[in-house]
Amino acid sequence: MKKADIFEFYRRLADANPSPETELAYGNVYQLLVAVVCSAQSTDVGVNKATRQLFAEVKTPAQMVQLGEAGLKEHIKTIGLFNGKAKNVIALSEILVRDHGGEVPADRDALEALPGVGRKTANVVMNTAFGAETFAVDTHIFRVGNRTGLAPGKTVLAVEKALDKRTPHPFRIGAHHWLILHGRYICKARTPECWRCPVADLCRFKPKTAAPKNKSAPIQVD
C-alpha cells in the first residue's frame, strides 16, 4: 500500500470514529492493566461482565492483594484460563505494591517484567493509559494488516514493526483502536464485510465479499 493510500486509509477510519477507545471497561490505569491481562483469549464483552463487580470493589493493587487469589477467582471464573490469570494478577499486584508504590509504571520493560504481561499487553497499557505511540497487535490487527496490505508480516512482531514504520501522524496514537475495531466489526475473520467497508477500494483483498440480499449497498466514500 502506497503512502498516500495509507494516509487515506487512516483518514477514513478516523473520520468515522474521531475518538477511538478500547471496549474494555475500567476506572483507572491499574484496572486497565488487570482488564487487559484478563482479556487474553477472551472477549472484551466477557471480561467486562466478569470485572464489573470486581472493579466496584477493587481499585488498587493493595485491595487486590487483600482480596486474594481465591476471591479473585470467584469474580473472573466465567472467563477462559481464569486460574492462571488470577495467579498472575495477584502476583503483579504484589509487585506493584512492593516495587512501584502501588502505581502502574509507564515503562515497557517494567510492565513486561510483571507476571502475565507480555509485549501486546504492555503496548495496550502504554498506548491507552499513557498516550504512547505503540501498536498492540492482536489477531484482529494481524489479520487487517496482512489482508489489506497496510502492514503485512509473517509474525505479530513483524506486523507491529510495519505499523510503526508506516503509520503517519496524526494517526499513530489512535491506530491500534481503529484497526482492532475495524477487524472486529467489518474486516471479520471468516467473511469480511467488504460491501460496507469504508476502505475497500484501498484494500488488496480479493475477491471482495458482496452484500447479502437483505443488506444495503456498499458504503460510498467521499
From TrEMBL:
<dbReference type="InterPro" id="IPR011257">
    <property type="entry name" value="DNA_glycosylase"/>
</dbReference>
<protein>
    <recommendedName>
        <fullName>Endonuclease III</fullName>
        <ecNumber>4.2.99.18</ecNumber>
    </recommendedName>
</protein>
<keyword id="KW-0255">Endonuclease</keyword>
<dbReference type="Pfam" id="PF00633">
    <property type="entry name" value="HHH"/>
</dbReference>
<comment type="similarity">
    <text>Belongs to the Nth/MutY family.</text>
</comment>
<keyword id="KW-0378">Hydrolase</keyword>
<keyword id="KW-0238">DNA-binding</keyword>
<dbReference type="Pfam" id="PF00730">
    <property type="entry name" value="HhH-GPD"/>
</dbReference>
<keyword id="KW-0456">Lyase</keyword>
<dbReference type="GO" id="GO:0051539">
    <property type="term" value="F:4 iron, 4 sulfur cluster binding"/>
</dbReference>
<keyword id="KW-0540">Nuclease</keyword>
<dbReference type="GO" id="GO:0046872">
    <property type="term" value="F:metal ion binding"/>
</dbReference>
<dbReference type="GO" id="GO:0006285">
    <property type="term" value="P:base-excision repair, AP site formation"/>
</dbReference>
<feature type="binding site">
    <location>
        <position position="194"/>
    </location>
    <ligand>
        <name>[4Fe-4S] cluster</name>
    </ligand>
</feature>
<dbReference type="InterPro" id="IPR023170">
    <property type="entry name" value="HhH_base_excis_C"/>
</dbReference>
<feature type="binding site">
    <location>
        <position position="203"/>
    </location>
    <ligand>
        <name>[4Fe-4S] cluster</name>
    </ligand>
</feature>
<dbReference type="InterPro" id="IPR003651">
    <property type="entry name" value="Endonuclease3_FeS-loop_motif"/>
</dbReference>
<dbReference type="Pfam" id="PF10576">
    <property type="entry name" value="EndIII_4Fe-2S"/>
</dbReference>
<feature type="domain" description="HhH-GPD">
    <location>
        <begin position="38"/>
        <end position="185"/>
    </location>
</feature>
<keyword id="KW-0227">DNA damage</keyword>
<keyword id="KW-0234">DNA repair</keyword>
<feature type="binding site">
    <location>
        <position position="197"/>
    </location>
    <ligand>
        <name>[4Fe-4S] cluster</name>
    </ligand>
</feature>
<dbReference type="InterPro" id="IPR004036">
    <property type="entry name" value="Endonuclease-III-like_CS2"/>
</dbReference>
<dbReference type="InterPro" id="IPR005759">
    <property type="entry name" value="Nth"/>
</dbReference>
<keyword id="KW-0004">4Fe-4S</keyword>
<feature type="binding site">
    <location>
        <position position="187"/>
    </location>
    <ligand>
        <name>[4Fe-4S] cluster</name>
    </ligand>
</feature>
<keyword id="KW-0326">Glycosidase</keyword>
<keyword id="KW-0408">Iron</keyword>
<dbReference type="InterPro" id="IPR003265">
    <property type="entry name" value="HhH-GPD_domain"/>
</dbReference>
<dbReference type="GO" id="GO:0140078">
    <property type="term" value="F:class I DNA-(apurinic or apyrimidinic site) endonuclease activity"/>
</dbReference>
<dbReference type="GO" id="GO:0019104">
    <property type="term" value="F:DNA N-glycosylase activity"/>
</dbReference>
<comment type="function">
    <text>DNA repair enzyme that has both DNA N-glycosylase activity and AP-lyase activity. The DNA N-glycosylase activity releases various damaged pyrimidines from DNA by cleaving the N-glycosidic bond, leaving an AP (apurinic/apyrimidinic) site. The AP-lyase activity cleaves the phosphodiester bond 3' to the AP site by a beta-elimination, leaving a 3'-terminal unsaturated sugar and a product with a terminal 5'-phosphate.</text>
</comment>
<dbReference type="GO" id="GO:0003677">
    <property type="term" value="F:DNA binding"/>
</dbReference>
<keyword id="KW-0479">Metal-binding</keyword>
<dbReference type="InterPro" id="IPR000445">
    <property type="entry name" value="HhH_motif"/>
</dbReference>
<keyword id="KW-0411">Iron-sulfur</keyword>
